[in-house]
Structure formats: structure tokens, C-alpha cells
Amino acid sequence: MDLSTLNHWQQLALCTALCERSMPNFQLFCEIEQKEDDFKQSRKILNKVWEFLRGQLSSLKNMENQLETIEAIIPNPEEYEHFGVYPAMDTMVNLQSCVQSILDSSILDAQNIQTMVQERLSEVLEMQEIPQEESELWQRQLEFEQSILDIICTQNSHANMIKELIPLSRDEGVSQLGICLDD
After folding, report:
1. Which of these, 97, 135, 172, 180, has the minimum number of CB atoms within 10 Å of its CB?
2. Considering the domain 7-173, what is its CATH architecture?
3. The pTM is what?
4. What pLDDT was estimated at residue 146?
5. How far from 72 is each of 66, 82, 87, 101, 142, CA to CA, in Å?
């Protein structure tokens, strides 16, 4: 599907769902680097994005401040020696895009975010020498994205769609890279 045909709300919902699904990547990075507060901050911001999508965010006053918070917690790959910094960075770049999209409805990043998520998964599969067509993770990601599109392209209310999107996106705590953490 050509994601440019989606309206602003649909694009933001897709990006938010992709961000939610990748949160275990950032959580693992924060645990490894002992940055639990960074994870808590990102979780609060992502919850605010979901509130906005549900139509429950009463004010956008603090959303600009959230951009500064995200900017401060985006990991810089040059400062770390492990691969986990890249998926963690991707997650925060996606979250940053979501917040920017709330503040400026002309920002339509769904295609870029989807590409970034798929390229990172493809990179992980390549490192493991697993062809995409043989990868369960790759198939799960494509099915996940299709499920999101099916939900956001229905005529349900935004609140009802979000009720479906959040548990689907959390995917029982498993990220698109197969990372799963027990809370």
C-alpha cells in the first residue's frame, strides 16, 4: 500500500504503532546502559501520543517540551560499542517524528518510519545470515503492518481503533527484532 494515501491521523497512528512495537529495543538498551529514567520518559511521551490519537489530550502545551526530552535521550551510536544502540536510536527517532507530527500536521513520515523499521530488521537478518523470505520475524513484521493498516483504514472511531492498536502493537512485549523483556 502507498502510505502517502493515508491521512495525517492514519499516518501518525501507523508510526505510533511501529514505535510501540519497537519499545522493547529501547528498553533493553536502557537496561544495559543503566538509563531506566530515559525509558520511563520515553514511555510517558509515547503514552501522550496514544492519548492524542484517542482525542484525549487536552492540551498540546507540553508537547514542544517533549521534543527536547526526546532529543536528550536519543542515543548517539558513536558513544556506544554495541549494536543495540541502533534499534534504540530508531525507536526514539520514530517517537520524535510522532511528536513533531502532532505539532505540525504537514509532517507525514509513515513511509520513512516504515522503511527505517524494515531496514533495521533486514540488517539484523543479514547479520544472522537469514534470508528475509525464510525469516519468521520478517513475516511477522509484514503481517503486523498489514494488521495495522487494516485497522486504521476501517471506519471505526479513533478511540475504538486505538483500543485495537495498542495491544496489537505491544505484541506481548516482543519487538520487531524479537526482543522480549519481562517487566
Report:
1. 172
2. Up-down Bundle (1.20)
3. 0.94
4. 96
5. 10, 20, 16, 19, 31
